[in-house]
């Protein structure tokens, strides 16, 4: 029986768009500030205030839509009416039956194509903290504080069709969507921090039946792991209900870290949001020229990046890691600039899980790889320089506004500070001449004659004794691979 | 009583001091507003400071602007920074906005001096000012009668000589109808001509701010000051602002004036009988339009014909559905616009055991009955299962209204009708909601179409009370509308003027 069920999942993904200001006001769209400081009369829903649509938010929404192969259509904002203290106007402005993006798809790496029903713009609500209850939750609370800094933040809700058939595929879909959002600069898309929120509509059906049965919407999925576990749990729950001759109830459920979903609310009546067209805004109808401008400004998308990385010799998994870290443009740029593809990919995968890696300049990364492949730096030295380059890039980013007064001086100083050859010189890294290394290897052999005998007898792992000795002598600057080669030469001589 | 134009000219030339002008008006308010109750708040102290600043500019040889030192009253649903903006509701009693409405900024920048905030039907819902939580405003012509509404305070203030200019808002006739009942000029501009930013919303797709004045020239002056594109209002029209004053003297020779059949019953005017009325489909006629009012409108048409206009009758059939459509769409928008008054952030809060109860108790205590009735009506009209039958159908009537007006404007430059179906009525006389709603039967169609319309005094009706004639024009056709209004003003019989001591007659009395 159990083997004959299949899982049916559709995902609703909310992402905060990376705009400087809010969807309908000039207040900064920024987090971590003092509560209720990033607000205007519009954000607070003060009487007489009116919304003005943020052009950048529309462009980001269009870019995401185009990346998801959607049609960009004339759209209308509606009001979704319901009372809630963190909704300043007691209605949410959201696109309803005429979303800006509709009917697209996303190809999940590894094969399947997931349909995209729509992607629409809407405003976020404020944030309520309940006082007195345990952990700021509503139960047992004696009061509430509302922070409207988040109120009016632009959200794009991306709704997939129920084409996803496993927890793994759902996870892969979200990862790929996240990579696309990062590539476009449309959102920082952090699940854990809530700038990307995933709700899963889950149901099951007899395998091959093609029917759509009662679904449950599961919320509070703030990691890919939660998403996968919640899908597996919820599907199991449905299967068990059907097996017991029962049926699931269509409802919203809450995923909790005890590994289960819980019924969130049991309203006797369905919500009636009384949608109607928002009279304070005019219809949004991007013309072909605007759409073409947005399309032309779009960077390369992850699927294409992976394909090109693959051409550079990257394994599928490595390509995924590079794209996931947002490093594809740097890596591909360095390769285009003449860097050795294999070494560049290796650095990106092994040495660049770092802040600032995405700030690296492709030409400088290429220079670094060239220093290494030409033998001027060892692999170890190259890694040290790379780490320093990232650290300095981050520092330069933070210092940038202060340097704005002296553009030419600071620009050349900054360029020097980030140049790999200059950094290597500062760190005292100079390529070791072959004869110097040979002398050190011979010294190491002379120091450990017993180990040398064992090595010559075929105990390869004893090589570590000599490599270690050489590293110690050079304070880690020697090229381990070169040492190993020299040892083999001496043995075979 | 001087006009705004005369006052500004005197102050700019140094002939009069803004402080003295202000004192005159404050004195009149002091003497008579206890009877009239036009104001919710008189901002005497701020006004004195503003007037002194104007005088200082003049002393420095600088020009304070076209409204230099002109006292102006703002309807109490226009946001004024640091000055209570109540909408005549308990819900917002004492609330001080942290910002000025765009029109308030514009008036102040032009040199106007805010003298106070005027009474209205609560949240602008009404046609008599009887629905103010702070008590009704009385008509300066007869203190036993209403001034109209919802901008009754602004209309009464100008009629009583408390200020030469006032601003109001018009959602279904709330500028034009009180202007008519108080014997003054009131303009509802094209939707989008004037920014709504800072106007506390009643029904967003209808609301439009406009001026009250004692004559057409003053009204045109104020209209010019408040018109223009505002990036803070997405529905504001990016159109250049014409020189409205230049339109006043153009004359109506050759203009085509259509008298709307549905709004003038079976009455026939001399000029119209002579022409061949295009599109007169002899359709339904709106109920309840008094004969004395219709007579003045037909006389006004004749006066325009005498001045050289071509006058004919025209049918605009959809106007007979206007009231019904309006009373579905406007409450629907209001039900959403007024949701924010929930006790959470500002205004009245009545505590409850939980948030929902706090919301409920606050709204129960804060809103008057008329506001509650409209919120319920609108909530119902938008409800699942009823949307298409009510809100959806009303929107189709709205499109039909635009189409019928467009057809009429293919043959006519302006249209003529009564503004109000009756002269000022007594308190309590129209207590039945449907009777009250019919006050706006002639004004609502222009809100549905978004086109400009204004009321100009033209003689008196029953009990020697003023009658207003409505001049309607196609979108952005304010210039032609003003040309016709100025011609009507020149031809109008003199008005007796309100009996309040010292108030000279407005409009016709000076001619």
Overview of the structural elements:
- The complex is a heterodimer of chains A (493) and B (511).
- Chain A has three domains: 2-290, no CATH class; 300-426, no CATH class; 434-492, Orthogonal Bundle (Arc Repressor Mutant, subunit A), CATH 1.10.10.
- Chain A is 41% helix and 18% strand.
- Chain A has helices at residues 55-67, 167-184, 224-243, 288-296, 302-311, 316-324, 328-336, 341-351, 362-373, 379-403, 407-418, 420-426, 434-447, 449-456, 463-473, 480-492; strands at 5-16, 71-72, 77-81, 91-95, 101-107, 113-123, 127-131, 143-147, 154-160, 196-206, 216-221, 251-256, 260-263, 276-277.
- Chain A has a nine-stranded mixed sheet, with helices on one face. Chain A has a three-stranded antiparallel sheet with strand order 4-3-14, with no helix packed on it. A two-stranded antiparallel sheet of chain A has the order 7-8.
- In chain A, helix 5 (302-311) packs across helix 7 and helix 7 (328-336) crosses helix 9 (362-373).
- The termini of chain A are far apart.
- By secondary structure, chain B is α/β, with parallel strands linked by helices.
- Chain B has 17 helices and eleven strands.
- Chain B has helices at residues 4-13, 18-36, 44-59, 102-109, 152-159, 176-181, 216-226, 244-247, 270-274, 291-306, 322-337, 355-366, 369-382, 388-411, 433-437, 444-449, 478-491; strands spanning 39-42, 71-75, 113-118, 165-170, 185-188, 208-213, 256-260, 310-314, 414-418, 453-460, 466-472.
- In chain B, helix 2 (18-36) packs antiparallel against helix 3, helix 11 (322-337) packs across helix 13 (369-382) and helix 11 (322-337) packs across helix 14.
- Mean pLDDT of chain B is 94; it is low at 269-282 and 504-511.
